[in-house]
């Protein structure tokens, strides 16, 4: 999985998900979700330009907020029977300047990964079961950026640098930094505009076309491949709002755990309150 969360949030997330369990010989006994199926053609520039239009009309958050609603997943594996289920989770993080906050994690409805091929848009639904409700005291939530960020390009660069973006980033570097930022902040549409432009300007992305994400939302995809070819990340941009609403990681080189082409993690933001219930 990505290193999205920090401090106690990472601890809470790790206790809430049952990840893949492997046999003593190291052979994987779990399947993974099926890849999203993209259609159509576009360029990265066209996706970003279309997102700018949608952002101007979407009426998103008017100010950054220390509140994040997200969806992700893990495995529940029975080693003896060699059966596995994909177990999505839905989460709400609320935190304050003093490092206090609350993380609530709700179990998703599990499913057999073999059934995901025909039902990508319906993979993440809430079971209503709260599996973690962690109240954090002042100072227990840690972050590299705790002050409200501004809306300019320089503001976003400063924030992303705090989250690990180098001075001369690739598109993958930009994506990695804003993935961490979006796990801690709900940003404005103006800030999403700057993130998209920074990602486009850094280069290295491949436009994939359009699809429906795992919450049933229409999105465009931009893929960034690691320099060593080990994995790729797909950034999902909402066709309705223009906002960055998800990132998925795929293994490109087979190993003892995953076959080439396996989706090993996804993270989606802007999850609706209705979905969380």
Describe the structure.
The chain is of the alpha+beta class and 277 residues long. It is 23% helix and 30% strand. It has helices at residues 7-16, 44-58, 153-162, 171-182, 189-202, 273-276; strands spanning 67-78, 83-95, 101-108, 126-136, 205-212, 218-225, 231-238, 244-251, 263-269. A nine-stranded antiparallel sheet has the order 4-3-2-1-9-8-7-6-5. β6 and β7 form a beta hairpin. α2 packs antiparallel against α5 (189-202), α3 packs across α4 and α4 (171-182) packs antiparallel against α5. The relative contact order is 0.20. Mean pLDDT is 85; it is low at 1-30. This is CU044_5270 family protein. Residues 1-20 form the signal peptide. Keywords: Signal.
Rg, Cα atoms, Å = 18 Å
- Per DSSP E runs of 2 or more residues, the count of β-strands stands at 9
Helix content: 10-25%
Spans of 5+ residues with little confidence (pLDDT < 50)?
Answer: 1-30
Spatial sequence of strands, sheet with the most strands: 4-3-2-1-9-8-7-6-5
Tell me about the largest β-sheet: 9 strands, antiparallel
Number of helices: 6
Structural class: alpha+beta
> How would you sum up the global shape?
globular
Q: What is the terminal-to-terminal distance?
A: 25 Å
Q: Could you report the average pLDDT, rounded to the nearest whole number?
A: 85
Strand content: 25-35%
Reading the helices and strands in chain order gives HHEEEEHHHEEEEEH
Keywords:
about 280 residues; alpha+beta; nine-stranded antiparallel β-sheet; 6 helices; 9 strands; disordered N terminus
């Amino acid at each position: 999985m990505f290193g999205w969360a920090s401090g106690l949030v990472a601890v809470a997330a790790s206790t809430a998900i049952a990840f893949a369990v492997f046999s003593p010989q190291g052979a994987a006994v779990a399947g993974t979700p099926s890849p999203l199926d993209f259609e159509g053609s576009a360029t990265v520039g066209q996706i970003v330009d279309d997102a700018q239009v949608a952002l101007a009309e979407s009426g998103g958050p008017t100010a950054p907020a220390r509140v994040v609603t997200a969806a992700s997943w893990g495995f529940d594996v029975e080693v003896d029977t060699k059966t596995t289920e994909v177990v999505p989770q839905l989460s709400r993080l609320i935190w304050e300047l003093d490092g206090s906050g609350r993380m609530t994690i709700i179990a998703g409805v599990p499913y057999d990964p073999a059934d995901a091929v025909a039902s990508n848009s319906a993979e993440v639904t809430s079971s209503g079961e709260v599996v973690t409700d962690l109240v954090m005291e002042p100072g227990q939530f840690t972050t590299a950026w705790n002050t409200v960020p501004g809306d300019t390009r320089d503001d976003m660069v400063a924030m992303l640098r705090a989250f690990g973006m180098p001075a001369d980033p690739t598109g993958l570097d930009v994506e990695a930094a804003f993935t961490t930022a979006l796990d801690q902040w709900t940003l404005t549409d103006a800030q999403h505009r700057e993130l998209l432009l920074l990602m486009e300007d850094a280069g290295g992305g491949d436009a994939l076309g359009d699809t429906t994400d795992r919450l049933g939302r229409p999105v465009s995809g931009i893929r960034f491949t690691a320099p060593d070819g080990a994995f790729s990340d797909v950034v999902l941009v909402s066709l309705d709002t223009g906002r960055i609403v998800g990132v998925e990681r795929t293994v490109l080189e087979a190993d003892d755990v995953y076959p080439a082409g396996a989706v090993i993690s996804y993270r989606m933001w802007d999850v609706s309150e209705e979905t969380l219930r």
